[in-house]
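Hi V.,

You were right to ask for the full record rather than a summary. Here it is.
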Amino acid sequence: MFLLQMGFANMLRRPFRAALTACGVALGIGAFVALVGFADAFEEQWRQFYRTKGTDMCVFRGSFMNKASTDESAGAKLRGIPVVADAAPVSFDLVDFTPDVSAVVQGWVDTSFEFESLTLVQGRRFQGDEPAVLLGEILAGSLGKKAGDWVEVQGAPMLIAGVFRAPDTFSASSAVLPLHQLQRLSDLGAKVAGFHVRLRPSSPGVSPEDRLRRAKLAIESQLPGLKAMPAGVVAGDNHIVNFIRSTAWATSLIALFIAVLGVANTMAMSVFERTREIGILRALGWSGPRIVRLILLEASVLGFAGGLLGLAAGRFGLWALASIRATAGLPRVYPSMVHFGEAMCIALAISLAAGFLPAYRGAMFPPTTALRYE
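Predicted structure:
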């Protein structure tokens, strides 16, 4: 208890410097909460995208996020495989609807089972290959459009046939176009990104993992050159998710490194200014390890305060991101208590790591030398 009181008192000697250091820690923690939390939420949105549509597997050539890598004609053979209940061809493209609003456009056939997951709130579904588009509710709000209006897609006017509500943010922030219209506008020919596949119910006693493994073997043996992967694996391992995750961690690590330097500088200055005081403590019988514990306690106080500020800053940043019109269609992020706990552990860890060298230096001062220090 005495060490704790002393640690707080020492930090309050230089309140402005302590506050600046805590803000530096808050910057790193805020970046971690906001960016890494967003990356995790984005991946979860992909998982929910497949889960709500009842998609069990994705079949494609090369990378599934390549908008034109698979022959559409493979769908007929795919649907003829006994383990496959249905297979829907899909394509994707990123479209600038206005200078401020961009969104993913999905290409579906009008018989796709994926329509089952959508709830029309305005208008109707498109029919066949008519030049019409369905807008997700979030995207329609961002564009200020409703069913019956017109919108340009890749320079072509399209009737907004309907507006839909979806259980996942990714779908609600996107548009759905007849597959052949998207192929024509994007010069895809008869290519698609791949197929979303529903499997038939498994036999009693077969685990979900075995069901997917057997389906993968059956599909890949019948369609050489194509890959079949569980939808959950595709959601967590595609280049968009990997890019966002890598960028989030890289940016967070840079901010955390800056925070480490700030704490290290503050603790080094604190030890330097209190050299004589440390010498007195050593002369009174304080051991080197006890001096180290005192200084590390001071560093952890800074880390804890900065961590709390960082949690608030990160949460505010996520709220601001969801409130800006240009990014309103991005996944809504609600960090879990586990994520907050990880952030606080990181805040304490970087503070202790940054404070260790100054603490060790202070503990190694010979008492006689420290007492003579002016």
